[in-house]
Specification:
Elements: E1 17-19, E2 27-28, E3 38-39, E4 42-43, E5 61-62, H1 82-91, H2 101-104, E6 110-111, E7 124-129, E8 132-134, E9 140-142, E10 149-154
Antiparallel strand pairs: 1-2, 1-10, 3-4, 5-6, 7-8, 9-10
């Protein structure tokens, strides 16, 4: 086995594993229909196999950081009456712009449903699969929702000779 730091590019087939750094688990890449080319009895994929819900599937829970909500501008300072100051002293400030526990709570976890606006990048341009460039294990997508780089962590080629590794 080589000690190469770089991942050796291989062709990607139906059943490959994808992962987003903000997803909590990997997901299978699926072929909706065969492009007519098979590799190790699996349909080979091309750069157009990037449709959410058809080829790309949820990857657990999205843990992407959410930007804080925009804060309303500070209102002009008002001269409070004596009684308003006493009320604030005993019952807390009634300023709606103050930081409260509700505004500091983390966002609720959401299902990691990638939003893809482009086709796969870093493909094999000189190998066409049904008119589209072949997908490689080094190919990637960027999720428009989280900004995460979706990568292929396993090419899907279930090789018997890899079972012993």
């Amino acid at each position: 086995m080589s000690d190469d730091k770089e991942k050796k590019a291989s062709y990607v087939v139906h059943g490959a594993l994808t992962q987003c750094p903000y997803g909590t688990r990997p997901s299978r890449l699926t072929a909706a229909t065969s492009h007519g080319v098979y590799l190790r009895k699996q349909p080979q994929l091309n750069k157009t196999d990037c449709v959410c819900g058809i080829n790309i599937h949820p990857m657990g829970i999205c843990t992407a950081p959410t930007p804080p909500p925009p804060q309303p501008p500070e209102p002009a300072k008002q001269n409070k009456s004596f009684w308003m100051k006493v009320k604030d002293l005993f019952f807390g400030k009634s300023n709606i712009n103050s930081n409260t526990a509700a505004t500091q709570e983390p966002a609720m976890p959401t299902l990691c449903v990638p939003q893809i606006g482009t086709q796969w990048q870093n493909i094999k341009p000189d190998v066409l699969i049904d008119g589209g460039e072949a997908l490689l294990s080094t190919s990637f997508l960027v999720c428009a929702k989280s900004g995460g780089k979706i990568v292929i962590v396993d090419d899907g080629q279930f090789q018997e000779d890899r079972m012993g590794e």
